[in-house]
Amino acid sequence: MPLQQAQFCKSLRNSDDIDMSLMVRAARNLPIKLLAKEYERILRRRIQRVGGSQTDKALAEMIRSFDETSLPESIKQGGSVKKGTLLTFTKQGSGKMTARANGLQLMTVESPKLCQAVFDLYLGDQPVSKESRQAAGDAVMGMMGTIPYHSPAEKGLCTMKSNSCQILT
């Protein structure tokens, strides 16, 4: 990723005047305990990386929202989150974070650093998927007219299934 775009992604992640949503679709049944443990591990590390604290109350609330007893029955199958479940993390304004599962609200908290940590997963220097970061950066820069826009599907980075882009890895 060119330096200009990497800086743009970092600015986007840290912005307090741009609303954003991150949507993650479960490609298979995901054991809830494993999902919760991984979100906790990754977000504790990421919140420190963006200058926040592992003791952030909003982080603790977000982690609790992925506890098996907190998740809606409609997204569970046995001890797993069902394949196809859509998790949506939305950042509004300067730090309001809402998490939803298939449109059902899991939690809403106020924490700019938690917002940065969640979006650092995909827009940061060490994203979970470089292809996703590239696609997100290209899409926003294209919408702004900074670069010519080509959808991730047009670029061969993903396939379109069920009206969503499935990243190829």
CATH topology name of the largest domain, in short, is Chalcone isomerase
Order of helices and strands: HEEHHEEEEEHHEE
- Tell the overall outline: globular
Kindly give the count of domains: 2
What CATH first level of the largest domain would be assigned? Alpha Beta
As an assembly, this protein is single chain
Spatial gap, N to C terminus: 17 Å
> What share of the residues does DSSP label as strand, in percent?
15-25%
What is the radius of gyration computed over CA atoms, rounded to a whole number of angstroms?
A: 16 Å
Helix/sheet category: alpha+beta
Number of helical stretches of at least 4 residues: 5
The helix fraction, in percent, is 25-40%
CATH architecture of the largest domain: 3-Layer(bba) Sandwich
Describe the protein in words:
The chain is α+β, with helices and mostly antiparallel strands and 169 residues long. It folds into two domains: 3-128, Chalcone isomerase (3-Layer(bba) Sandwich); 130-169, no CATH class. It has five helices and nine strands. The strands form three sheets. A four-stranded antiparallel sheet has the order 1-5-6-7, covered by helices on one side. The protein is globular, with a radius of gyration of 16 Å. The two termini are 17 Å apart. 24% of the residues are buried. The model has no long low-confidence stretch (mean pLDDT 82).
